[in-house]
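Incident log, support desk, overnight shift.

02:14 A customer reports that sequence design results differ from what the structure should imply. Their input is reproduced verbatim below. On-call engineer (initials T.W.) acknowledged and began investigating.
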């Protein structure tokens, strides 16, 4: 059973995830689920998140 959760993201972040999802032939929702799954898998594997700087604000260089 899958749970539904509200999620707020900036427009910039949404647009980047959307582009990435299109490249991977996924929906935005599917891409977010995939990314979260990979982060959890990585954390279980070595006890760390993908990045030590995960809590830093996202700086997107978008033209």
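02:41 Re-run completed on a clean worker. Output:
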């Amino acid at each position: 059973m899958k749970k539904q959760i509200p999620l707020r993201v900036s427009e910039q972040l949404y647009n980047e995830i959307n582009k990435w999802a299109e490249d991977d032939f996924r929906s935005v929702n599917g891409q977010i689920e995939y990314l979260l799954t990979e982060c959890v898998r990585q954390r279980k594997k070595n006890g760390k998140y993908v990045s030590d700087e995960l809590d830093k604000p996202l700086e997107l260089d978008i033209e």
